[in-house]
């Protein structure tokens, strides 16, 4: 295809009545070399940021250029040929002198406007030059083998031509075997297959939208705001209502002010927004129609007239500058006297840490089906982590008692906190429509709708000031933390509280102050996400520790070990640490990962390679388990035993892939001493277990497991006379005897976590029931020319007590780690200055792929560490492992530091999370990146705003 074939983005010269019948690709000649490269945000299944192809022909038997064609994608709306550069190459010798000539010409011939679509302007311009340099190295290597006298490239330079290939996977999962005195039939602490695994793998598992359609079912589509900060002057649904198949339009006019208002804790949100919108993606109305196509088309036809109020506040930097904070902030947590600590300090170090948001990207988007029943009842099938919250807010909006609202969940296709309270956003409009119209109503958000409406993990900015003695022991630390709440409070204050609780991570800080600010901005309200503020806080602390180590010219490992918490340590919220296994996890990891020898190997690799660098890093973690809202530490269970001996078990936890139902069946089977295959869990429902907390905070197994244990022990108590009277009989006989004696075989179990309390006015108490400990080590390799990276190996040692199910728990650790990998290196929410989410959908927002899994991935569960404060001596596992992925972030930082050392650059550079390909490349500063004036060492441009 010659020049002019492509006329614009996704358009070409082929006419509607023409057919492309073939492509002719000639064979290369002996003196012709082709090199092609692509750099994307993610190596697998992703479009290029910049790609390039080079077709170079040399005079026969020489290294003098005869023809040169240089083609680039991602530098203009269409593929472009760098013709001037190609002409300038003619007659030139293929040697190192050529590089600077080409760099100058390409920089001139491939300009990019600062407002060019796609952003990352300095990176893309640098990448174009870097890709030519990679081609130069690859072709030069070929010439060395084919052209006598061609000057070979230095061995250290040759790695610049290489690209990453998926490593052959290798892994190990190590866990404690059950003791010899445990019955061979007892399922507890044994690897058990997830009860839905085969159905999920084959696609047979039923999710909310798999429920067959009712014959009279309608579909609901949402009408959302398109302005980030504006008055609503009018809402006109006339055109939409005139469409065939459209049944009704709902808005704030259909609810009283009390019914329309909602919020998880602070009720500053609305079912339907009116008067003023403070973000794009807010629900203004809902169209109900015969099917999805009609409803969505009609929703787009609803005309809303706005009057813009002011320029929206999008970033944390904007919020801080404009003092846009929610009332009640800042909050403080203080331990000791930081002024005295700083006065005694040998060295004081100051810095900051920034971390972007993260989209939940559950496989199943928000979904709801509402079915009206007799007597003013309504049944709700909702993709939610919190059936009781759906029941509560639907009850209020419909003005019917909660006992007539049945909230049901079979399973979720992922939740990660995004379906804890934000499911109410969809459930209430769908329930309202079904209730008012007397017909079943369904809504399933498209991926782009879900991303625009539901919010993300909170971006954080945290500054620190730390004082240490001459050995590196921390004497005092002062933190200021800001999170981006978005347009409403949701759970942002709780996320900030969690971050403040965990700001010390695994370290003993005798004098500490943390100041927290919740920022109000004009983006969708951010919400709960796995980790709930702790990864952001811990990243800042680990950044601080490494900063101190560089300041003292010390190994950060020495400082970690010097300052690590031990049993007896009292936190800044006055809780004493008990049974601390942190140092045990750390020392076991250092040994199992062979860290000392591998650090030497990394140094040797970096000495031998100019354009490839490796880094290896270790992080510890200490994660507190418990709802700091004390009343939420409770749950219930219901056990029915039928005449045939089978057991129907119900509990308050929602199955969202984490295996909670499997673990509850294991617990019941262990207590009752029956096979797991006679126990069944049908669903989670408010009609069976009332007033449940959300399945969140990693507490699902702890709370519900103890409730199941309680219920099953009551069953055992009722069966004990029959077991004593008929010791040689079996389970079914005992059940039959009890039934004929009119003994109830239906039991409600309940559990409330004992000995937890917290006084928010003084920030003191015991808000958490115990801590989870662990450590992770990761080794990475980066391509200094493109910013690409590959995780070579990760080792994890984690204390999760006596695992209820090692197979599921190790799967949770591996899954959390990969989600954390996305948070720290790959996933990036991007907004325009007017508050429009640009990174909507999988085309623009990248989650980790199979090739991003560490080449070698070893997970080890700490042995001999039972936990006396949870069911069967287990510990929570869902959230704590996510931070382990920060070991990759810091390994990348070390690799960048090695690259900067080649240029005699300072090791104190600002690496914002996520460490994307663009940030890695631009931090590796060299003669290519320095060509672009936009590049300034240590400068920061907000990660989530793009022209």
Automatic annotation (TrEMBL):
Record has Nucleus as a keyword: no
UniProt-listed SUPFAM superfamilies: CO dehydrogenase flavoprotein C-terminal domain-like, CO dehydrogenase molybdoprotein N-domain-like, Molybdenum cofactor-binding domain
CO dehydrogenase flavoprotein C-terminal domain segment(s): 35-139
Domain of life: Eukaryota
Key words of the record: Iron, Metal-binding, Molybdenum, Oxidoreductase
Residues of the Aldehyde oxidase/xanthine dehydrogenase a/b hammerhead domain: 202-310
Cofactor: Mo-molybdopterin; FAD
Keyword Lipid metabolism: no
One Pfam family linked to the record: MoCoBD_2
UniProt protein name: Xanthine dehydrogenase
Source organism (scientific name): Aedes albopictus (Asian tiger mosquito)
Highest classification ranks of the organism: Eukaryota, Metazoa, Ecdysozoa, Arthropoda, Hexapoda
């Amino acid at each position: 295809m010659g020049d002019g074939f492509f006329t614009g983005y996704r358009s070409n010269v082929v006419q509607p009545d023409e057919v492309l019948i073939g492509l002719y690709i000639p064979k290369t000649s002996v003196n012709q070399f082709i090199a092609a490269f692509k750099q994307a945000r993610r190596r697998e299944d992703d479009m290029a940021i910049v790609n390039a192809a080079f077709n170079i022909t040399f005079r026969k038997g020489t290294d003098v250029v005869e023809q040169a064609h240089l083609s680039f994608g991602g530098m203009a709306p269409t593929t472009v040929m760098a013709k001037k550069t190609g002409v300038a190459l003619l007659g030139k010798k293929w040697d190192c002198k050529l590089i600077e000539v080409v760099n100058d010409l390409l920089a001139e011939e491939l300009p990019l406007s600062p407002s060019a679509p796609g952003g990352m302007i300095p990176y893309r311009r640098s990448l174009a030059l870097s890709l030519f340099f990679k081609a130069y190295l690859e072709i030069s290597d070929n010439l060395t083998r084919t052209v006598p006298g061609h000057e070979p490239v230095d061995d250290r330079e040759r790695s610049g031509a290489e690209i990453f290939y998926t490593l052959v996977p290798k892994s190990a999962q190590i866990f404690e075997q059950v003791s010899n005195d445990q019955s061979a039939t007892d399922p507890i602490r044994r690897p058990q297959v997830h009860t839905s695994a085969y159905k999920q793998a084959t696609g047979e598992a039923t999710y909310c939208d798999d429920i067959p359609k009712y014959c009279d079912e309608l579909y609901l589509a949402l009408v959302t705001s398109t302005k980030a900060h504006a008055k609503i002057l009018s809402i006109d649904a006339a055109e939409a209502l005139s469409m065939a198949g459209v049944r009704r339009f709902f808005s704030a006019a259909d609810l009283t002010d009390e019914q329309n208002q909602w919020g998880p804790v602070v009720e500053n949100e609305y079912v339907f927004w009116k008067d003023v919108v403070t973000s794009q993606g807010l629900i203004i109305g809902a169209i109900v129609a015969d099917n999805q196509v009609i409803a969505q088309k009609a929703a787009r036809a609803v005309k809303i007239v706005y009057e813009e109020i002011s320029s929206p506040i999008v970033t944390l930097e904007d919020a801080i500058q404009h003092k846009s904070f929610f009332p009640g902030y800042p909050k403080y947590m203080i331990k000791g006297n930081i002024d005295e600590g700083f006065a005694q300090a040998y060295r004081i170090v100051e810095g900051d840490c920034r971390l972007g948001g993260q989209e939940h990207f559950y496989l199943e988007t928000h979904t709801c089906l509402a079915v009206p029943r007799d007597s003013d009842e309504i049944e709700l099938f909702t993709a939610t982590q919190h059936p009781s919250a759906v029941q509560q807010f639907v009850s209020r909006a419909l003005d019917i008692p909660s006992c007539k609202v049945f909230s049901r969940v079979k399973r979720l296709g992922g939740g990660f906190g995004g379906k804890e309270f934000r499911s109410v956003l969809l459930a209430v409009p769908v329930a309202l429509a079904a209730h008012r119209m007397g017909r079943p109503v369904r809504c399933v958000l498209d991926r782009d709708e879900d991303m625009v409406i539901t919010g993300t993990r909170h971006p954080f900015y945290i500054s620190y000031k730390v004082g240490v003695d001459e050995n590196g022991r921390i004497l005092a630390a002062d933190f200021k933390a800001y999170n981006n709440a978005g347009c409403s409070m949701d759970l942002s204050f709780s996320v900030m509280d969690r971050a403040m609780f965990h700001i010390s991570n695994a370290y003993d800080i005798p004098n500490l102050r943390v100041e927290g600010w919740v920022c109000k901005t004009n983006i969708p309200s951010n919400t709960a996400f796995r980790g709930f503020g702790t990864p952001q806080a811990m990243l800042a602390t680990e950044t601080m520790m490494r900063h101190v180590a560089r300041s003292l010219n010390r190994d950060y490992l020495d400082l970690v070990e010097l300052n690590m918490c031990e049993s007896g340590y009292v936190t800044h919220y006055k809780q004493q640490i008990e049974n601390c296994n942190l140092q045990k996890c750390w020392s076991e990891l250092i040994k199992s990962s062979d860290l000392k020898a591998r650090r030497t190997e990394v140094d040797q690799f970096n000495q031998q390679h100019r354009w490839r660098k490796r880094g290896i890093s270790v992080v510890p973690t200490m994660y507190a388990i418990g709802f700091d809202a004390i009343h939420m530490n409770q749950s219930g269970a219901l056990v029915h035993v039928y005449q045939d001996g089978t057991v129907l078990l119900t509990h308050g936890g929602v199955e969202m892939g984490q295996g909670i139902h499997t673990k509850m069946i294991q617990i019941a089977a262990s207590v009752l001493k029956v096979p797991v295959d006679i126990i069944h869990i049908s669903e989670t429902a408010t009609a069976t277990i009332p007033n449940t907390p959300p399945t969140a905070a990693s507490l699902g197994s702890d709370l519900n497991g103890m409730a199941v244990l309680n219920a099953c022990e009551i069953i055992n108590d009722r069966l004990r006379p029959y077991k004593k009277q008929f010791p040689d009989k079996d389970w079914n006989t005992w059940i039959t005897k009890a039934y004929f004696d009119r003994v109830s075989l239906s039991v409600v179990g309940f559990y409330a976590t004992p000995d937890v309390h917290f006084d928010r006015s003084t920030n003191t108490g015991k808000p958490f029931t115990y801590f989870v400990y662990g450590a992770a080590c990761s080794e990475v390799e980066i391509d200094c020319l493109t910013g690409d990276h590959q995780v070579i190996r990760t080792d994890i040692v984690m204390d999760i007590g006596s695992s209820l199910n090692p197979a599921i728990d190790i799967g949770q650790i591996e899954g959390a780690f990969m989600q954390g990998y996305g948070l720290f290196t790959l996933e990036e929410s991007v907004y325009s200055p007017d508050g429009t989410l640009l990174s909507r959908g999988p085309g623009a927002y990248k989650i980790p792929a199979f090739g991003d899994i560490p080449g070698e991935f070893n997970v080890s569960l700490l042995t001999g560490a039972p936990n006396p404060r949870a069911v069967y001596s287990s510990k929570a596992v869902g959230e704590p492992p996510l931070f382990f992925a920060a070991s990759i972030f810091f390994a990348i930082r070390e690799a960048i530091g090695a690259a900067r050392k080649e240029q005699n650059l300072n090791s104190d550079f600002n690496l914002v999370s996520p460490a994307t390909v663009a940030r890695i490349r631009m931090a590796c500063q060299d003669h290519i990146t320095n060509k672009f004036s936009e590049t300034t060492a240590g400068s920061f441009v907000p990660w989530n705003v793009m022209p």
